[in-house]
Amino acid sequence: MLCYTPAMIGISDRDFAALRFEAFGNEVLAPAVHPLRAPLQVEVFQTPERVTLALAEQAAYTPVAPGFRWGPAWSTAWFKVRGQVPPEMAGWPVALRFSSGTEALLWWQGARKQGFDENRDTCLLLPCAQGGADIECLIEAACNAPLGVTMFWWHHPELMRRWSEERPGRLECCELVAVDPVLWRFREQYDFARRLALCLPESSARANELIRGLREITNLMPAADPRRGLERAAPLLEALLAGRGGAPATTCVAVGHAHIDTAWLWPIGETRRKIQRSWANVLELMERFPGLYFLASQAQHYAFCEEDAPALFARVRERVAEGRWEAGGAMWVESDANCPSGEALVRQILHGASYWRDRFGERGRQRFLYLPDTFGFPASLPQIMALAGLDTFITDKMAWCERDDFPHVTFRWRGIDGSEVLAHLTPGMNYNSSLQPEELRKGEDHIVRKDDSPIAANPLFIPRWLQPFGFGDGGGGPTAESALRAEVAAQVAGLPRVEQGRVDEFCTALHAARDAARAESGRDLAVWDGELYMEGHRGTLTTQGWLKRANARAERRLRALEALLAAAPESATARALLPRLDRLWKTVLLHQFHDILPGSSITAVYDDARAAYAHLEEELQDALASAARALAAEAGEENASFLVFNPCSHSRSGVARLGGRFALIEDLPALSAAFLGAANAREAEGGAAVSVGRRTLANAHLSLTLDDAGRIAELREKAAPLAVNAVFPGGALCPLNQLTRGALEVLRRFRSSRIVERYVLDAGARRVEIEWRIDWREERTVLRTLNAANVRARHWTSGIQFGHLLRATHQNTSWDEARFEVPGQRWMDLSQPGLGLALFDDGKYGRSCLGNVLGLTLLRSPNFPDPTADRGEHEFRLGLMPHGGDWRAAHVPRQADELAEPPIVLPLRDAAPPGAPDPAGASEPTRRAPFRLAVREGGDAEIACFKPAENGAGLILRLVERHGGLTRLRLNWNLPVAALEHWPESRATAVTLSPFEILTLKIGLAPPEQSPA
Known about the structure:
Layout: H1 6-9, H2 13-33, E1 37-39, E2 41-47, H3 53-58, E3 62-64, E4 69-70, E5 76-84, E6 94-99, E7 103-108, E8 111-116, E9 122-126, E10 134-142, H4 157-162, E11 169-170, E12 173-178, H5 181-199, H6 205-219, H7 230-242, E13 251-257, H8 268-288, E14 294-296, H9 299-308, H10 310-322, E15 325-327, H11 342-360, E16 368-370, H12 381-387, E17 392-395, E18 410-414, E19 420-425, H13 437-451, E20 464-469, H14 480-488, E21 497-500, H15 503-521, E22 527-529, H16 545-567, H17 572-590, H18 603-634, E23 642-645, E24 652-658, E25 661-668, E26 673-676, H19 678-683, E27 691-692, E28 696-698, E29 702-706, E30 712-717, E31 742-750, E32 753-761, E33 768-776, E34 782-788, E35 795-800, E36 803-808, H20 814-818, E37 822-823, E38 827-832, E39 835-841, E40 846-850, E41 853-860, E42 872-883, H21 892-900, E43 904-907, E44 926-928, E45 931-935, E46 941-948, E47 955-961, E48 967-973, E49 977-980, E50 988-993, E51 998-1005
Parallel strand pairs: 13-14, 13-20, 13-21, 14-15, 16-17, 17-19, 18-22
Antiparallel strand pairs: 1-12, 2-3, 2-5, 4-11, 5-10, 6-9, 6-12, 7-8, 7-10, 18-19, 23-26, 23-43, 24-25, 26-44, 27-28, 28-29, 29-30, 31-32, 32-33, 33-42, 34-41, 35-36, 35-38, 37-40, 38-39, 39-42, 40-41, 45-48, 46-47, 47-51, 48-50, 49-51
Helix pairs in contact: 2-5, 2-6, 5-6, 5-7, 5-14, 6-7, 8-10, 9-10, 16-17, 16-18, 17-18
């Protein structure tokens, strides 16, 4: 017999011993956990649809045996399982061992009991079986793995081949097994000790202690029947794990978690089943492990469960009331944070917190925002959180930065307005942890290295950290093995102390430790000021451009609908539309999930999204028409032909298309409506002049000339002496937009794609707009627009949600270099004294400025995970505006709003036949404004929303300062304001907003006067 030594195979003595222990655990201990086995009879019913239990019970089944292949991908197979407990299993705990090679859900006695997947194939059925007991159950199998049907580089080639087949499902096993729970626990502890020895320094006393102890324990257990040595070995193993070490350096708070992407490599319809499987798993584990706590962090998932599985939801409610199941995380879904508007981020929290509070009472109260997998976070988020009553932010994603290591674990996150929240970046760098020893040591190493540095300027160190554990992304959650590890790790020398608990209690402990340490030392935690930029996934700012634009349009139209309803708050229409408004918002919020809106999901997800947004657009148009008619009736304008609504936060003049004609509507106040007849459209056709040449456009403010390639050869503000274009060496102007109404149209061909750019200049406009129509047929290609300005500046400015950020135009540091593309909203500007250039968009988010070149990414067509991404037809608008060098004085944010939010024209009645008299006549348009907003010169305010209150009592007006300075404004009410929270009742309200302040006003209205008897 040939014997190997460590030297012969080139590994250390410790690693050689660990290999022996691994083999002993897998080949001796693991099989002995199930000493008895009995096959079961299996029949199958296959369907391409997701069907109910009732339909599955009525279906015809066909007998099959292990080895049966089934499919195709995304289909469903229901397995009917029958058998009896053999007499020799009497008195044993008996479990069902099943694998369909896919995800599956066990239905036991008519209820959802547990999920099966690649991480769990055993479910305990009978704690103490009776011989001859009948076994009958149904198993609903989905032909997909936890990560859908997509294979990654880490998967085995055989698995990749299997999932490329027509029938990738496999009936791998279906049997009853007797379970030895004592040996099972011993085997898991044995493996835990082995892994701990491997992750400690090889020369450490603790590693040697573990190796010696495991060798002694292994020698006590006969390979033929390891149970005979269990009585002596089990106490030795418990003592070995406890060790003789001192107090742990840190405390890890472990909470069960099943990160379920609301869609990613599977559609939303499959997510609804993943929720049921994962939550059934957790509920079963909670019966076995009384110390287990669990966090499920998306309100939408609870709503899905409540609708799809009421009995399962009732069990969840019981655990929430008990306190071991935590309904927390604050948002409706774990949203993307780069592309949604500021108001959408508010609504994510509003709808999430409201749902949980309604369903779970005090247990549903929110205090932390949990976004473990979102791709970066805007600098306005701390204020949004603070105003929503959230004091703690938790994520993991900053650990994914590609170049720069984020320097903190627990810190103060300061927003653009100065608001601060406590932030915690889970140092284990994995929200899908299995709680293995190496993961626990990694988390402790990170928090000590980052927060307990001896040379840190503010060495306030809180030795407490959070570790979510359980299989995730595709769900599943904790296994019995990881739940046991959470118990075992509570007192193990060589590891941090592990406690199981709730996340909100973890937050309470963090804040208390900070307060105590601050009081004692006078020092505070480190501060991170500004955005949390994630150096990765930059393509998510552009991909699926149609959805990003549809989302932005839906946000704008929901805001407009709410403002129209608030302008006629007592109308029956307003009251009737409130429930629909809630549902429409939730559709938008759902599709803002961090793998849907960013464009990182599979084709099926976007097929579903297109259908959802087509229906949403129809509903929004119908609701807007109803709201317009209600407002017209209240204003006595039933005979008007059109309502023109100004969705901007300032008074504006603009061109609107009325019945096929253009009308110039002048001086329309913020969120106000003008009522017009068809004659108004005809009379307004003349307008102020725009001159159009073969390659030139000009109005009173701007002139534009195109070159032979259709680029902007020169763009000039007439009052300025210089063109805004950059200048080549030698003096020639560098064209803008490399890649009406007066209008010029340019047709381009690029490879297989067709690009039409239409340059539009309106009368009186200070910006030129570019309407793009693109038929994009490229793959693995990015389309960008680059605009080189004749400006020298070390910083550029970009709009973000509820404010703006200043960013470097250079790449002096690795942090600057890594920000080759950054998120932004609506506008970007590069200025020097005397000259500046602003670039506007209506739903593009990836932007850059290196040196003097403003760049905006327009389309991106990767092949993974959706090979159809951004292929096809696109329409969007950009704008360019030269100005005198001060973007505030040039009202750049207002110009951006005007481009993104043109006047909304709503027909109030069918068009009159040709030659028929116009009932509205040709009189001057009448206007209806719920208030007039007057802003003092130098300031600027955004009206984030004006809407009926969620409970229908009164109105909500949300204002945001966006210049970054003090803004004084005055609201002159045209509504019967009876009460204004924090202000005396008045027909006018004076308000001063501090830099970037978000102010929400709650407005009470006087009851309508009673009609005389």
